[in-house]
Amino acid sequence: MPRPGFVLDVDKSTPPILFHHGESFRLEKLPAGRSRVLYPGEPLDPLDDVDGAIRHALAHPLGDSEPLAALLRPGMKLTIAFDDISLPLPPMRRPDVRQRVIEAVLDLAAAAGVDDVHLIAALALHRRMTEAELRHAVGDRVYDAFAPHGLLYNHDAEDPDNLAFLGTTRHGEEVEINKRAATSDLIVYVNINLVSMDGGWKSTATGLSSYRSLRHHHNVKTMQHSRSFMDRHKSELHSSNWRMGEVLKDAGVKVFQIETTLNNDTFGTSGPMSVLQKREWEWTAKDRATFVAMKAGLDRLPMKARRKIFNGWLAPYGVTSVQAGEVEAVHEVTTANVFAQQLVPIEGQTDILTMGLPYICPYNVNSVMNPILVMCLGLGYFFNMYRGRPLVREGGVVILSHPTPWEFNPVHHPSYIDFFEQCLADTTDPVELEAKYETQFAEDEWYRHLYRTSYAYHGVHPFYMWYWGTHGMQHVGKVIIVGGEPRSVRRLGFTPASTLNDALEMASDVVGRDATITHLHNPPIVMADVS
Amino acid sequence: MKALVFKRKPAKFAAAMVAGRLSPGAGAKVGPLSLRDVDPPELPGPGWVRVRPRLAGICGSDLATIDGTSSRWFEPIVSFPFTPGHEVVGELDDGRRVVVVPVLSCLPRGLEPVCGACADGRINHCERIGFGRLEPGLQCGFCESTGGGWSTLMVAHESQLVPVPDDLSDEAAVLVEPLACAVHAASLVTAGQVAVIGAGTLGLLTIAALRAAHPSLDLTATAKHPHQRALALELGADRVVAPGELERAVRTSTGTMRYDNGQLGGGVDGVVDCVGSAESLAQALRIAAPGATIHAVGMPGVTTLDLTPLWQREVALKGAYAYQRADFDTALALAERLDLGRLVSATYALRHYEDAVAHAAHAGARGAVKIAFDLRSEKERETL
């Protein structure tokens, strides 16, 4: 029986706590008597028979939906859309659950005589997936059967000939999605719901959409009113996507939604990485030795080698649930299943929230975690891992731990470089950035060219990363990055600190000397249910 | 009278070259510049007056001279020994303050009729700066006959005098000459998208002049240091980036394409190079759009460049030297409006010339803009 997540009150006997720190780690002694640590739950037991669960879900849909087999018929146009490289994190070991689901769907389609099938990586404005990444997601069999014939490809949000405008929501939000998907008799959307933000109408309305459509919810105002965007019912981001879902339905777009959830088995139960999944006071002598050796080894390696090691890590995630059918009914159950793994109750807010940022976020798979992504992971994703109230009080301090190098992958993140060098040098205010620069970057021909033909994130993407942190930036009084490259940290508008103790000292200027501290022990993923 | 004098001494010149390469400005310590007691310059003829400098700036061309990096091009158009200093606000014997227009064109040289360029008012194009009643010298500060601003007394022709309004400070007035250069450079630029390379005194003044002349200009500037960046923005740049970020900034602001090696498909319509180094000119070539013009405002010297883009893109490389007389009127008004006196960061007495030159040579890194000599408290000043 896996143990649930819990809150540890730090006392004098508490050992140093693990902080992820990019492609390395830190062990930090938290002040006794005023610190606590929010631990994730242990990995839930995975499904014994994933393929059986998939077949069952397809045959027993939730909500107002017929079984998938009943929706398939000869001569129909079927589009299977699936989540892109941003999910899950880290990538999972083969077979990826997308492959399993897609193979099951294709078996049913073949049995029904459906021969017009397209598979689309629903990447919205993310970078295109490489062949290797697509093979990993859908499996070699599916890839070889479809890709050579041009039937498996990346969505192109800048292809004017393959976008369909379907109308506007009652709030005036334009809905434009992939034309092939929009004109299909059925879209089957295959999700990996790593966190509660994922899935629902966001899958189709965002994953298959264009900038014209996305800009209505990927903006500062929406993010200011999403508290948090991990809590669908308090998230304006989701409300907008749900409104767009209405437009899709009204336009006759039929979606059969398949959502899957994973457990917290990010680092496995054996091997050196498994220590990252254990609670520090339960580390054995062997665990300690392993950790010390791993850290020492990593710290001696050049960054390129370290990245290669980390990027090669495939998580042994177990699948915990599969839901299929009508979008909203499916998503309600999925969200409950995500929460069952990740949600941990915690009483009251904290003055100082500490977070160790790992080497990966949704937008740097096989790439570099540049400073903008550091901000996004910290103040965007991790800060928003709450339900109820933010874990840190308003005006409190967030302390992040990450090396934050002034380094970018020029192939994946060309517009990020310019955003960082030019826009953030001018202002870090999301509202001003949006007003002054967003359109220019979004419509830049070179970025558009690289997005469409290379492996670049869309020109507007760094803005979205910045907007993701809007709520956090608004809420906290100070952000400190421990171990961050000072000039990068300052460009972000934050304060660099050499050590956690220095950071706590700096924080005391804002929240006083007896401030309470909470450490979000993430990853594996934990979400705070703040009472 | 006291004057800093630059003599033709090959051995010291060589020493200055070596020292200057090791540390810019170090040529002042070992080179041919020295503080001397000299006879006051004689009035060369009718229409000439004595000018007692109040403030005299240290310019990039002065530093190049002191460190021995100036081109040999100047050999026939300077005369030794000379007293440097062509950025001068001074006062006449009757107490009136003036800014000196240092160019020694046909009129000061007593050449009649004047050359075609001077007849057109283009004194900076004068064809006779090595002839006439004066020793050769393109400007005061490089001519044996006139003396220069780094002294307690120099002479100037009445055609070279620009009255200074009472409410304009000496600090603002001493910037009028370099500002006139900037005004002239700005007059050569056509509107559109322009990049200014360099945010030293000349770069900052050029930004101000460009903004004044072309309000709708889209202006990208480079700056190495935070105070330069702040001033560049204040004086009219739309965006200011670090020198190494310019190519990307130009690509972003123009929306042009970029090749895998970083080369741009297009670029800006105009580049104003206020540095004049091989690196800055090469960068200018990299960011100039096809058909664009590069304006060399900073003095370039001997330079090695790949001119292929100049050819392939039909880019024009155009010098921007000095000014015309009318540019001083514009500069005076601008200096007053923009309160440019604040750009004078430090002043030195003549006897501290080595420190002054070192400060000027490292002005950016030391948080400064313009360094000048302050002659107002020199003891002998009132007795001359």
Explain the overall architecture:
The complex is a heterodimer of chains A (531) and B (384). By secondary structure, chain A is α/β, with parallel strands linked by helices. Chain A folds into two domains: 6-43 and 342-530, LarA, C-terminal domain (2-enoyl-CoA Hydratase, Chain A, domain 1, Alpha-Beta Complex), CATH 3.90.226.30; 52-262, LarA, N-terminal domain (Rossmann fold), CATH 3.40.50.11440. In chain A, the strands form five sheets. In chain A, strands 1-4-19-14-16-17-18 form a seven-stranded mixed beta sheet, with helices on both faces. In chain A, strands 7-6-5-10-11-12 form a six-stranded mixed beta sheet, sandwiched between helices. In chain A, strands 13-20-15 form a three-stranded parallel beta sheet. In chain A, helix 4 packs across helix 5, helix 7 (201-207) packs across helix 10 (236-250) and helix 16 runs antiparallel to helix 18 (461-468). The longest helix of chain A has 16 residues, at 97-112. Chain B is an alpha/beta fold. Helix content of chain B is 30%, strand content 20%. In chain B, the strands form three sheets. In chain B, strands 3, 4, 5, 6, 7, 14 and 15 form a seven-stranded mixed beta sheet that branches. A six-stranded parallel beta sheet of chain B has the order 10-9-8-11-12-13, with helices on both faces. A two-stranded antiparallel ribbon of chain B has the order 1-2. Chain B is globular and about 65 Å long. The termini of chain B are close together.
Give me some keywords for this one.
heterodimer, A: 2-enoyl-CoA Hydratase, Chain A, domain 1, Rossmann fold, 2 domains, 7-stranded mixed sheet, B: 384 residues, Quinone Oxidoreductase, Chain A, domain 1
